[in-house]
Each structure stands twice: as C-alpha cells, then as structure tokens.
Amino acid sequence: MKVLTVIGARPQFIKAAVVSRAFMEHCPGINEVIAHTGQHYDANMSDVFFDQLDIPHPQYNLGVGGGGHGQNTGRMLEKLEVLLLEEKPDRVLVYGDTDSTLAGALAAAKLHIPVAHVEAGLRSFNRRMPEEINRVLTDHIADCLFAPTATARENLRHEGVDETTIHLVGDVMYDAALYYRERACQPHGFQCLGIEPKNFVLCTIHRAENTDDPERMSGILKGLAASGLPVILPLHPRTRAKLRDMDLKMPVNVRVLDPVGYLEMVWLEANSRLIATDSGGVQKEAYFHGKRCITLRDETEWVELVESGCNALAGADPARISQLLTEAPDMRFLEGLYGSGDTAKRILDVLNSGGG
Predict the structure, then answer these.
(1) 69 is catalytic
(2) What is the per-residue DSSP string for 27-55?
(3) Mind listing the pLDDT tens digit for each residue in 300-326?
(4) Thinking of the domain 2-171+339-352, which architecture would CATH place it in?
C-alpha cells in the first residue's frame, strides 16, 4: 500500500514522525511518500532538525507559503493535485488543522483517493478560527477518522459522521512526548537569564486572535506583569513584529528567548513551574509533563483538560491571568486522557485492516 502524507508545519512533522516510525518498524510493506507543502518556512527546518528527531526527510517540498489562507490553500491544491496524479497513492494521510491539512484532503477527494485524518473531531466551536474551518471540512471529507479523545469521537457522532469511519486511538503527541523526553536539552542562552529551573512560567503566544489584537495582547502582558513571577517567553519573529507595531513593551519580569527547537521546548516544559499558552499542542504537552496550564484563549479544543482541572481558561483578562498564575491549585492529574502511548500502532492497525 502506498500512503502519501501531507504536512506543512513543524508540529505536523513531529506527529508524522511517530506514525512514520511505526510504518518502518511494524509494516515495511507500506510505502510512505511525504510531501511538505512549505506552509511554514522555518530556518530551523534543516537536515539537522530531521536528523535530530529521527524524522524522515520529505521526498517533496512544494514551496508554498507566505501568502494568505486562500492563496496558500489554492496553490497547495494545484501542486498537490499534480503530485497525486504522479504518485497515485492508495491513501492520503493528513494531520491536524492547518491549511495544508485541508488542501491535502480536498486534493485527494477530488481525485477519489481515500483520506485518513489524524486528530479528527476536535472542536473549539469558534468558526472565526481558520483552524476550526479546516478541521470541520477535513473531517467531513475523510473516510477514516482517528479521534484522539472520547470527546472528539462524540463531536463527530453529533455531526452525523458514519460511526464505522471513527476510530478512537489516542493522541500521537503523547507517543512523541514519551519518545523524546530523554532527549530534551536546555535552550542556548537559558543560563544567562538568571532563572532557576522549576521556578518560572513558560509562556507561548502565537495565535492571530491574540497577536493581531492590541487589546488582547496588552491584557496578556499586563496579566503576566501583575503576577510578578519570572516568565520565559520564546518569541516568534511575527509576534515580536506585532508587539513593535502596537508599541507594547515587554514587562520586566518577562525574559524573551529566540524561538526554540522541539527538544529545547520539551526541556522548558518539563522544567517550568506553570505554563501559559494559546497553543493547542502546548496545552497537551503541559499535561504530558505534569504541569498546570493557563490557556490564553476563551475556548479550547482540549476540553477534557479543563474538566479534569489540569487547565484553566484565562482569555486575555489581566486579573484572571494573574490570579490563575499566582493562586493556581495543585493539578488533579488524571491518567489516560490521551491514550497509552501506542497511538501510532493503533493507527497502523486500522490502515492495515483496510479500515475506513
């Protein structure tokens, strides 16, 4: 069986690496072709990145990126259609909720190629989020839906998705967390910050709903400042530029790092006291590392974390952010929310059985 995997952002490479490794270890008969759309250009996306994480190098890089959602998705569709006609895969495999995810699913569906979606069924119920549109449409295109949680499975059922196409398999990011935990390394420049491990808040901010809104960004920074806690913020260049355009100053208790690689991020997560983020992936990674998370959004796809007490929604309210950071109760850690660390093998078993 030939599987063509479509990915376009660094988190998708991490997820795909887990499944690709399972292909090689348990089913060498599966011929996987990996296509990187180029959606997220990253200077760190070099040979070192792939070799460091044991990630297969993509056979194709379509070089699409830098445009708006419509432009990117359209260009990806055009190039993926050509590639699919050339490679003639038996199935297309897509991950998550990016423009690359939707483009891969649409291109395959137009050519009547079956689509499998990893991380199916996630819902924020906020249709203003591009990611929400991508994930809903992809789920209704795919014939094989790999749900990470029981909540995700129920979301698909409520939308009338064929029950036989839904497979509750757990979360591939938990597989990744277990695999890479021992390889984590301290970020360059951390020692110069004068902050002790286990004594800082790790913060990440990248979603457009925050970075493009001066009022929300100001509220988040005020909340971090009011907490008085040492905060480490790996800052993406786009977010840095937005802060400059908004004339927002970084609080004195916030130490900025340049963007870090995946293994460095794992180290920061594992050695933090608390995590504050607007990233869906980092919310889960906080749970994997036993850290309480404050989510800088008004909703989350990972509702089971909130229900279990591992996560709290703060939005961009300065008072709530500060309160949650300084008065956070001990986390009630519930095991098994995202499977047993064997999600990739479960996905492989379904694909091998012809499941859809």
Answers:
(1) no
(2) -TT-EEEEEE---S--TT-SHHHHHHTTP
(3) 999 999 998 899 999 999 999 999 999
(4) 3-Layer(aba) Sandwich (3.40)
